[in-house]
Amino acid sequence: MTTTSATQSIVAALGGGSGVDFAALATNLAEAQFAARKDRVASRSELVERQVSAASQLRSQITQLATSVGDRVRSGDISTQPQIANGAVATVSRGAASGSGTYSLEVTALARGQVLASPTLPAGTAPGSGTLTIRFGTLDGTFAEDPARTPLALTIAPGTTLAGIAGQINAARAGISAYVAQGPGGAQLVLKGSEGAPNGFVVEATEDPAQPGLAALAWAPGSDPARLTARAADAAFRLDGVALTARSNTIENVAPGLSLQLTGTNPGAPTTIRFNQPNTAVSGFMQDFASALNELASSLGELTNPQGGDLARDPGARALRQALTGLGSTVILPNAAPGQPRTLAELGLATNRDGTFRLDAGRLEAALKAAPEGVAAMFTTGIHGVYATLDRLARNAGAVGNPGSLGGSVSRYNALKTRLSEEATELADAQAALRAQLAKRFAAADSRVGASRGTLSFLQNQIDAWNAQRN
Description:
Elements: H1 5-13, H2 22-75, E1 82-84, E2 90-94, E3 102-109, E4 115-117, E5 130-140, E6 142-145, E7 152-156, H3 162-172, E8 176-183, E9 186-193, E10 200-207, E11 228-230, E12 235-239, E13 242-246, E14 250-255, E15 258-262, E16 271-275, H4 279-303, H5 315-325, E17 349-351, E18 357-359, H6 361-370, H7 372-377, H8 386-398, H9 406-470
Antiparallel strand pairs: 1-16, 2-15, 3-12, 3-16, 4-9, 4-11, 5-6, 5-7, 5-10, 8-9, 12-13, 14-15, 17-18
Helix pairs in contact: 1-9, 2-4, 2-8, 2-9, 4-5, 5-9
């Protein structure tokens, strides 16, 4: 701390008359006055720093565990996954639920969108000005407009080329796209609708009499069949022999645990879809899971040890310990069917008396054999299951607004660390002020002692002089 010039002068003068080092004396007395309090603050600060680190470490461990479990579940290798024999017909993926067994798939038609081409025009020419209106609905010989869909009305300014019209259509994002096809005979405006029979469309034109020509882009059923290069249609397929249709080639949850992306047809030659049973992957995951829980339990036990653990009395650490202790018996799949596993204990996760975990491989094997679908249902990304349970546990542990969580503990310790830092600064300032006060007092005393010593020296000299005259 920087002292004032006045204090420096006082300190420099100390000891000048008495021979006593009053500067060191003032410093030592001030330090002695505040030593005990400063030591207490320093000790508490060190403890709080360790507590912040310990609570943050535990919070990070449980968060990383939940994240790792989520990544593993999303990868799909520990859940039943559909596989298709003929990959040219469809891409299969796991749906929201768990699936099992086999299905047959026969695709007779793919969903497609309507494609309409304009008459050929010289490249770069403007077809006229006015208004183009595109109406949506079902096109099957005649057109039945969908009253729920708003027509797309475009104002075409004079001089607008086919490319400009295509740009206006695409910018409207109305479920129809456009581009200009350049051929040897000139340019054509190509319009493409969304997949599905209800996504057909017609084009109406209102010409500006001063700039005619826009009517060439209009189209309705029967006006020019050659311009309709593809008609909007639904997908048609049979799943296990049942005839089904879909407006899109992407079909979510067509059966329990099964979603489809149709890519080809196979009329008369059904292909097979079957679900694998990832028993080996589940066993490996559960072993890794138990090991990861033991690492967390080991850290938790060390940090909450009543004999010197930095978090021995921390409510957040206690709450996490309680949550881990009851993890095996917690119902993580409340919607499981009767007889299907609902807890991690039923998958072989056992808790030892010291709070550590072990995997009962025999119990897990029995569960996989008796209820493979039920086990698979535990490993989903839904609101229930292994991942959802760990994710909730991690979120609860990290909740800053909850004083009974690790997040609340970190927040509380950081606030205490700030207060201790401020207290340490206040003690240093008070010590400096006391030192300056003592220095000022000692300077005055030293001055008086110096004056007294000067008087005594003068008298001694006079006496010595008198004695010399007598002799």
